[in-house]
What does this fold into?
Amino acid sequence: MPIYELPNEVLVEIFSYLAEWESPKPLRHRDQHVLTDVCRHWRQIALIMPLLWTTLFYDWKLEERRVTKRCDNARGAVAASFNKMVAINSYLKRAACHPLYLAFNLYPQEPADLFARMLNHFTPHIRNLNLKAPFSVFRALSMTSTSLQARSARFPLLEFCHLSMPYGDIDKASARKFTSRSQINFTGCSKMKELYVDSPDESFGFFSHNLIVGIPFHQMTSLAITDSGLSPLRARDILGECTSLVSCRFAVGQWEENEADPPSLAPITLPRLRVLIVGFTGRTTGGRISPFFRALTLPALVKLTISAPCSVDEDVIDELVRMQSRSCAPIRVLGLMNIALHCGEVPIFLLLLPLLRYLRIEAPLDQQCYSYVSIFNAIKYDRTSIGPSMAILPNLEEIFIADNLDERYTVEFARRLEAGLNIRIDLSKVLLDEQLLDAIESRCWRHGETPELMYLGADGYRPSRSLDIATMLWRNVPNQWHTIKRRATSRRDAMAAVFPIDIYLPLAD
It folds into this structure.
C-alpha cells in the first residue's frame, strides 16, 4: 500500500512515537515540525494530535547558531529571539490542555523578559519543568507582573521541578535588593513530589536568599538542594518538614569554627527516608557538622553518604552512633568521603551496621595522614575463635579506603634525593601492605568453601559474606615511587588465584 493511502488511524499511531522525549534540536528541525512540512495531509493530522506537542527540550545555543548566521546586527538578533519565543508559544499551544514536559537550557544571552512572559502562559499545564538558566531569567520570572509569582496557584499539575543557576552572572547587591521584594512562589503545587535545586555560586542561592518560596516540603519524596550559602541549621529545618521524603541530597554550609553552638534542636523522624547524601562546605577549615545529625532518627535509611572537606569535628562519629542506635536502620551503603575522622572511633559505628555491603572512607585532600589503613585491621576476622568481635560487618562485599601518605616520608625522600644519597625504599613496608592483606584474607573464603558462622547477638549465628572487592588508595605519593615494585604485589596475585576477590592497591600523586 502506498504511504499516501495509509488510513489516518495508522498515521496517528506512527506519529505518536514522536511524542517521546528526545535530544535537543533546533526548533524547526524537531521531528514534529518535520512532519508538518511533508504535505498538507500530514500537517493536518499532526496539528490535531495534542500529545505530539507536549514534550519540548529547548537549548538556546542550538538556536543561537541559526540566529547568528542570519543576523548581523543587535536589532536583528533581538527580532530573531522574539520570533523564537513566538515559535515556542505556538508549539506549546498545540498541546491544548494536555500536561507539558518542558526542559529549557538557557544562557546569559537569552532574552530573559521574553522567556518569562512566554512561560507564564503555560504554568497551569506544566507537569515537568527542567530549567537551567542564568540569574537574569529567574529574576525576570520573579519580577514580571504576570510571572510565576503572581500565578503561583496555577501550578496544579506540577510534579517534577529542577531549577539550575550555573552561570556566574550574579550581581550580589542587586540580587539581594530584588529578592527582598519578590520571589518565585510555588504555593499551590498540590502534586509536586520531586524538587532539585542547584545554585553552586556561594554568593547567591535559591534558598539562602529566598528566591523561591512556598515549596510544599511535606509532599516531597525526592529532594536535592545545592546551595553552599544555605546554613546547615536551615537545611536541617527543611529536612524536618519533609515527612514523606524517600531520597535527599544536600550540599550546604557547615557550622564555622567561631560560630556558636546551635540551640536545642527539635527531634526529627523521617520514617520513609532511604537515601541521605550530605555535603558540607565551609570558608575555612575547622568547622563542625555533627549537630546536623543530632536528634535525627531514620529507621528506613539504606544509603548514607557524608562529605565535609573543611570540617574538623571530633563529635561526628559519636552523633552517628547515637543516630544509628535510635534508628536501627538497615544501612547497606556507607560513604564518609573527604572527611577527617578519628579512625579509632570508626569501628564503634561499624559494629552497628550488620547489613552494610559497601563501605567507602576517604581522607581529606590536605596531604595529612589519617591512618585510615588501620580500618582494615579493625574489621579483620579472628579465625581462632567465635565471638562478638567477629560480627563486625558480616555482610560486607566491597570496601574502598583512601588516605594520604605521611608527609615525613615524602620530606625525607626529597631531602635524600637533593643530597644525592642512594635511596632504597621498601614501599610495601611504608604502606603497611602485609597487614592490609592479612586483614583482607581473613574475610575471604576459598572457592567452594562454606562461610564461617558469625555471632550476631540477638540474631544468633549467621553465615558471613566473603569480601569481593577491596581497594586501598594512597595519595600524595612521589612520582618516583610509582615505579618501585611492591613485595605485596605477588601475594595479592596469589590471593586472587585462591579467593574470588579483586584487590586494588593504586597510588596517586
